[in-house]
Structures are given as C-alpha cells and as structure tokens.
C-alpha cells in the first residue's frame, strides 16, 4: 500500500488519472446482501455471490437480486481493477466523497485482492434510485481525466 504526502489538488489529479486507467465494469441487474447466521456458512450462494463478509453474528453475501423482487436495499453494482504499480491510495474515500457531493448518495464498497490483475479491486454499490446518476458521474470524472492527459 502506498503512503502519499501530497496536496489535495495533487491527490485529486492523481486519482483522476487512476480512475481513467482503471478497468471499470458496470454489472448487469441489481444486487443485495443475503444474511446467514455465522454458524451456517451459505454454501448455496458460492456460485453467484460476488463477496462474503462476516461479523460476529452473520455471514453477509453480496448476491444478485431475485427477478421481480422489490428489495429496498438493492444496489446497482460497478467494479474497478487497477493496473499493477498504480498508486491508488485514497481512491475509495476520494470517489465516495465526490459521489456524495455530486449525487447526494453514500455508497458501499467491498474490496478484494487479485495479484494477477494488479492487486486490490473494488466492488461499489449505490442505491438503485440514483444508480444511473452515479454511473454518469463516474463516466464524467473519467472523461475529464482523459482530456487532462
């Protein structure tokens, strides 16, 4: 993990370039969390879940929503893989703050590690009600970074 000492302006410029270079995937459909008691790992979700996380009481699996289900906690999901050697330190807080200021929403982020694809990767979720606006804001920020190269 990188530790950067830089001005807020330099951080913004660096992370705009990180965003422009990252592989962005907008996932089809909606996603939600399925909770299972910690004593009963949800093996049945292994094939479809994108992430598993737990606390002392439950396993929480990030899974596609059922067709036609009306889930108030459903998310649009998008993900980032970063090129190897890229200093993406501060990316989650920076982009989350931008989306809060621009769209008015918070986000959820689940991170993983894939060394063969550059290291840390992120799954991001935003409420379905503002999902299109969030994706548009991400694309606009990426486009602004491309024009500054």
Topology:
Blueprint: H1 8-21, E1 23-37, E2 51-54, E3 58-64, E4 75-81, H2 91-103, E5 108-114, E6 119-127, H3 131-147
Helix pairs in contact: 1-3, 2-3
Approximately how much beta-strand content do the residues carry? 25-35%
Structural class category: alpha+beta
N-to-C CA distance: 25 Å
> How many beta-strand runs?
6
What is the succession of H and E elements? HEEEEHEEH
**Low-confidence segments:** none
From the alpha carbons, calculate the radius of gyration and give it in angstroms. Answer: 16 Å
Explained architecture:
The chain is α+β, with helices and mostly antiparallel strands and 149 residues long. 30% of the residues lie in helices and 33% in strands. It is built from three helices and six strands. It has helices at residues 8-21, 91-103, 131-147; strands at residues 23-37, 51-54, 58-64, 75-81, 108-114, 119-127. The protein has a six-stranded antiparallel beta sheet. A hairpin with a 3-residue loop joins strand 2 (51-54) and strand 3 (58-64). Helix 1 packs across helix 3 (131-147) and helix 2 packs across helix 3 (131-147). The model has no long low-confidence stretch (mean pLDDT 90).
Structural descriptors:
149 residues, alpha+beta, 6-stranded antiparallel beta sheet, 3 helices, 6 strands, 30% helix, globular
Task: State the gist of this model.
This protein is α+β, with helices and mostly antiparallel strands. The chain is 30% helix and 33% strand. The chain contains three helices and six strands; from the N terminus they run H-E-E-E-E-H-E-E-H.
